[in-house]
Amino acid sequence: MLNMIPTILLQTSPDAALSKTQGVTPRTFWLPEGASTIAPELDWVFNFINYINYFFFFLVVGIMCYFVWRYRQRGREVYARGPNHHTVLEVGWTVLPTLIVVVIFFMGFKGFVSAKTAPENAYQIDVTALKWAWKFKYPNGAQSDDLYVPAGRPVKLVMRSEDVLHSLYIRDFRVKQDVVPGRYSSLWFQADNPTGKNEKGEDNFHHLFCTEFCGTFHSNMNRKVFVLSQDEFDGWLVEQARWLDKIDDSELWWKAGPKLFVACKTCHTLDGSVGTGPSWGNYDGTGNIWERTKTGSTHKIDGGKNLGDIIGPGKEYETPDGYIRESILNPGKHLVDPYGNVMPTFKGQLSDRGIQALIDMMKNLDKFNKDGTVKPEAIPQTAGGAAGVAAK
Ligand code: HEC
Ligand SMILES: [Cu+2]
Is the CB of 63 under 6 A from ligand 1? Predict the structure, then answer.
């Protein structure tokens, strides 16, 4: 089995996903240019309804303005009786709108069916939505935080939520689907044009949004969609599934740690400040995340107990590593006071090497900046010119 990719590879931080860069399609007042095979059909219906609306809006408002002028009060005369019935008009304004609505219904229904029915040969990507991230899992076990899809081939997203209601929306593809806890939902699209690079040599992308307000960091769920040619995509998949294996054990802490920490930083700060979860920095006087697992630690868990009482030879966890491992794979087992059981499990998402990288990072926490990037001067000299990579 290929090593599971814990998270985010190319996205250096969730905040970067919020960067001001635009997607491939320029900002427009109306819908941006469509970039999927179903976009033209959906846009046609959209425009059809839109133009019908313009037509009737100007017709009704126009007639109204004319009548206001035509029947304005001119003198002192009072109209006691006006016409109160006109069969042709009444039948007209009933039958015509009905016909239009029926036509719209059939066009909409046809579009709905083709948007809902994924072709048999669609490439399947599993999507997990959680507060506040997306996880994309590919058939070979690779994972990513941004979405990568092959060009010229139908792609089916099978989606589930780990917590609350989310909704996946890729504007340029004209697809949007709620992701409901406790059930699977899916959508499909086919994008024929690879996103490629822009003039500055940066990767182009389409925007992906969560469009269901799902809590404080809802906006952290803005992600990018990269469409790669089939060849590029295959290469990417293989790379993606292997990156953690290629890092030397002694370098895991600074090469893999910061990348994996991105999945933790929405809840855990490094500077001791309050977050959704306990800071990895020193916030209760018992030291940082690694220091507070030492023998005799008075870091409080499970309603007033000392963390030190469960770690040590003969105790629940022989080593601090065991406790941290359990906190990541089975977060509900022990709860840090006064926090609730809100941390998702990372079982199946973090390999043993991934967990090791995070533990190594915790052991070296003083070598990291507050945002989770490694301090360039802390990188071992033998690593040569790689400092720039890690500092990213
Ligand atoms: C959704 C928010 C959230 C995310 C994301 C999250 N955690 Fe947590 N974490 C918490 C909360 C809340 C607690 C305290 C309750 C508990 O112990 O489960 C906690 C506790 C912990 C503890 C025990 C801390 C202590 O002081 O004893 C560890 C270790 C930990 N998390 C590691 C991680 C790692 C590693 C990641 C990323 C791979 C991560 N967490 C991602 C919310 C989160
Ligand atoms: Cu969401």
Answer: no
CATH class name, domain 1-70+86-243? mainly beta
More confident residue, 169 or 33: 169
184 Cα: distance to centroid of ligand 1 (angstroms) = 26
Task: Say how far apart CA 128 and CA 144 lie, in whole Å.
Answer: 11
pTM greater than 0.70: no
What does the alpha-carbon distance between residue 386 and residue 103 come to, in Å, rounded to a whole number?
62
* Ligand 1 pocket, residue 324 CB under 6 Å: yes
CA 351 to centroid of ligand 2, rounded, Å: 25
Query: Which amino acid would we find at residue 170?
Result: I
Give the angle 301-355-257 at the CA atoms, nearest 5°: 105
Indicate the length of the chain as a whole number.
392
Q: How many CA atoms lie within 13 A of 168 on its CB side?
A: 32
Pair 308, 292: CB distance under 8 Å: no
**CB proximity list for 184: less than 8 A, separation 6 or greater:** 158, 159, 160
Domain pair 1-70+86-243 / 249-391, same fold: no
Cβ atoms of 317 and 326 closer than 8 Å: yes
CATH class of 249-391: mainly alpha
pLDDT tens profile 258-297: 988 988 988 999 999 988 999 999 998 899 999 999 888 9
Domain assignments of the chain as residue spans, ordered by start: 1-70+86-243, 249-391
- Averaged pLDDT score across all residues of the chain: 86
Torsions phi, psi of 345, nearest 5? Answer: -75, 150
CB 390 within 8 Å of CB 258 = yes
State the DSSP string of 228-291: E-HHHHHHHHHHHHHTTTTS-GGGHHHHTHHHHHTTTTTT--SSS---SS--SS-SSSS-STTG
Mean pLDDT to the nearest integer, 244-251: 88
State the virtual CA torsion across 127, 372, 370, 333 in degrees, nearest 10. 60
- Given a cut of 90, whether residue 322 has pLDDT beyond it is yes
